[in-house]
Amino acid sequence: MRHYWKILVYLFKQNFIRDLQFRSDFWLSVLTQLSWFGMQVLLFRLFYNQTAAINGWDFYQAIVLLGVFTLLEMVLFTFFMHNLSRMPYYISDGGLDFLLLKPVDAQFFVSFRYLSTNSIFQILPALLLLFIGLRELGVSPSGGQILLFALAALSSLVILYSLWFITVISLFWINKVFEIHELFLSLFHFVKYPANVYQGAVRQFFSFVFPILFTITVPAQIVLNRLENIRTLLALPFIAVVTLLAARLIWRAGLRRYASASS
Amino acid sequence: MSTIIEVKNLTKTFDYYRKAPGLFGSLRGLFSREKQFVDAVKKISFTVAEGELVGFIGPNGAGKTTTLKILSGILYPTNGYVKILGFTPWERKAEYLRQISLVMGNKEQLWWDLPAIDSFLLNQKIYDIPEQQFKRNVELLSEMLQIKDILNVQVRKLSLGQRMKAELVLALLHDPKVLFLDEPTIGLDVVSQKNIREFLRRYNKENKTTIILTSHYMEDIKELAERIITIDHGQIIYDGRLDELIKQYVREKTLKIFMSKEVPLEKIALFGKVEYYDKDYVELIVPRERASKTTQEILSAFPVDDLLVEEVEIEEVVRLIFEKGRKVV
């Protein structure tokens, strides 16, 4: 475990040094994030110009929800954006060769090799949203709530990572699709809205097939002190374990199929 | 010497889909495809002893790289048994991977955006190399390969030769017991090729590292490998000493004779098969085992200015083997 921690710390350092070399890349990503963030807030504002609440969520609660979404997205992007988007190169073009050669767990290495340290700055808009939302609502979460929030958020991150990972390693079985990681990212955007807006088949899909339904809503409900159903909270760590296990098994099966690329 | 690599009946079959040519074929391929199988490696068996340097030769697509990738744990075989240092490679136990290394001439593992030394440091963390050993190896290897002054330069700014040398250092930092080299000199200029060859020979001698090497440059094989394994269409067609191979395949030698005076053709034809005749210059083909005796006889019988005995080039030998495509062992 300490071995992996040491590697991760070093990878972080190395990627940070690497990202610092590309200043224009850094500023561009700040600019992109800011404009993206502005658009989101604007969109929410437009919704709420029409109505005071959407399925029981008022504007500032929705802002907190967006804050949680932005926070988790930040963590996901920092760690996995540059790694999982590489999967077509790894699997279809034989890039896995050298990764498989290392005496560390290959899934670990594939997932954490290239960190996107630029994405960390997205924590600022995330905290800003949480701060404004909670202040306007007059809610201040207790230490216990924050701890519970952290645990729920961690489970959510595991779920989101596992599903993203499973999506991209499908390349072991299908022909090269360059933008396969976009598939996950487009589905991911569904969860920045409250879980209860989804009904029927869509709800079933996001609960069982691609179980991301509660990943943002439940952590948000914890800090907002409006958790309605304890079962949704308990479901999170359970789904996390199941999806991570599935990711692991599918990865191992995939490695057996890995054909590298001829020289 | 103890056996370090044992391979028995190793087979690897790849499946792929055949696509009919053209747009129509591609469209039809969206709905129905024909699955095809190809044997990259067919039931090959061999063993390698500790400290041996074995050369793998064969034409493109013969199965050399596939074999190396199975031995280094990257690919699962379809069938067969492999034990290296007591491990089954494709189980990819950390304990095994720590003791081997693979260098591929056409693939880089150095990180382009950073200096080579940063990739070295990452490997130090991954292989858990003690500080002292790490420092010693970086020092020693970069000294031997003469790249000490470029370790702090961004990899993207290095020449191909410098990058290859840095790749070698990277691959050897953890003192592997078994080293797989897949075309380590591909695309390099003659000087760099020679440097790397000399380095490998010295490294193999000093460290007793077991090495399997593939190369398309026969010079590499001739200089480095005492034993060669020849693969074609996924099968081993020769396994043995390089000079034995030459002896088996090349039954003749060519004598190039420069005469000081014109010698009649019919006289010289008594000594062998005349390949070329031009009054005072003759090329004569004689059986290998009689070459030295014939040389003496010609020297005493004719006014000879100069005489050269030529071996067939190893490239030629290999071409012969692959053309005949038959088993010699």
Task: State the main characteristics.
heterodimer, A: 263 residues, mainly alpha, two-stranded antiparallel sheet, 12 helices, 2 strands, globular, B: 329 residues, alpha/beta, Rossmann fold, Alpha-Beta Plaits, 2 domains, 6-stranded mixed beta sheet, 4-stranded antiparallel beta sheet, 13 strands
Biggest sheet: strand arrangement of chain A: 1-2
Q: Name the biggest interface.
A: A-B, 26 and 35 residues
The amount of helix of chain A comes to over 70%
Might you state the CATH topology name of the largest domain in chain B?
Answer: Rossmann fold
3D structure, described in words:
The complex is a heterodimer of chains A (about 260) and B (about 325). With about 260 residues, chain A is mostly helical. Chain A has one domain (about 1-260). Chain A has twelve helices and two strands, in the order ααββαααααααααα. Chain A has helices at about 1-20, 25-50, 60-85, 85-90, 95-100, 105-110, 125-135, 145-170, 180-190, 200-210, 215-225, 230-255; strands at about 55, 55-60. Chain A starts with a helix and ends in a 6-residue tail after the last helix. In chain A, about 35% of the residues are buried. The mean pLDDT of chain A is about 90. Chain B is globular and about 75 Å long. Chain B is α/β, with parallel strands linked by helices. Chain B folds into two domains: about 5-245, P-loop containing nucleotide triphosphate hydrolases (Rossmann fold), CATH 3.40.50.300; about 250-310, YebC, transcriptional regulation domain (Alpha-Beta Plaits), CATH 3.30.70. Classes of the chains: A mainly alpha (about 260), B alpha/beta (about 325).
